[in-house]
Write a structure and sequence with these properties.
Radius of gyration: 21 Å
Structural class: alpha/beta
Distance between the termini: 75 Å
Order of helices and strands: HEHEEHEEHH
Strand order of the largest sheet: 2-1-3-4-5
Largest sheet: 5 strands, mixed
Length: 188
């Protein structure tokens, strides 16, 4: 009996890991190339602690500068990431199953990973761009409360892919483009 439960646990873990590998292959096929005037310098705010995120945005050469200390700049870009556990019964069901097997079967929960980009002027948001992906979290019942909330490799890849998508969407967003043009007119 215990061998069957262990086999089921191993199967579930491998199933979810294979889905993560498949999701990794679904990255954006087209990269953004900035054309036209470079956007003005902006005050940059983010809750993303990965030190390679800001240089990844700067590599597109779309903004003159992303300055984290220039609070006085009139235009800003805020990038926030967040998680939300879906209340779909998966976590409760697998937690009960895990508890009945004394933690041999892992607890599975479905979550939503969201990245939001805001363009703001003088503190007021004028444009918002949200990108979401669903992912699955597999934890041990005994150690899940002590686990740090770190992005999975799939979520990190998704986060990097949102940068290109953000610039595609920003290029089409009229309010932001009008503000960038107005800044160029008055400050250059």
């Amino acid at each position: 009996f215990i061998m069957k439960i262990f086999s089921l646990s191993l199967f579930l873990t491998m199933f979810f890991l294979s889905n993560l590998t498949f999701a990794k292959q679904l990255s954006l096929l087209t990269e953004y190339k900035h054309t036209g005037d470079v956007y003005p310098p902006v005050f940059f705010v983010t809750n993303i602690t990965d030190s390679s995120f800001k240089p990844a945005i700067e590599a597109y050469n779309s903004f003159e500068e992303l300055d984290e200390k220039a609070v006085g700049l009139p235009i800003g870009v805020r990038v926030l990431k967040g998680y939300r556990t879906k209340q779909d019964g998966t976590q409760f069901t697998t937690m009960m199953l895990s508890a009945s097997t004394l933690g041999i079967i892992p607890v599975v929960s479905n979550k939503e990973f969201k990245v939001r980009y805001d363009i703001f002027v003088q503190g007021k948001s004028i444009a918002q761009f949200e990108y979401m992906m669903d992912s699955t979290d597999v934890n041990n019942i005994w150690t899940s409360s002590y686990k740090d909330k770190k992005a999975t490799p799939t979520e990190e890849l998704f986060l990097k892919d949102t940068i290109s998508q953000f610039f595609f969407d920003l290029q089409k967003e009229e309010k932001s483009q009008a503000v960038f043009a107005e800044y160029k007119e008055y400050f250059n």
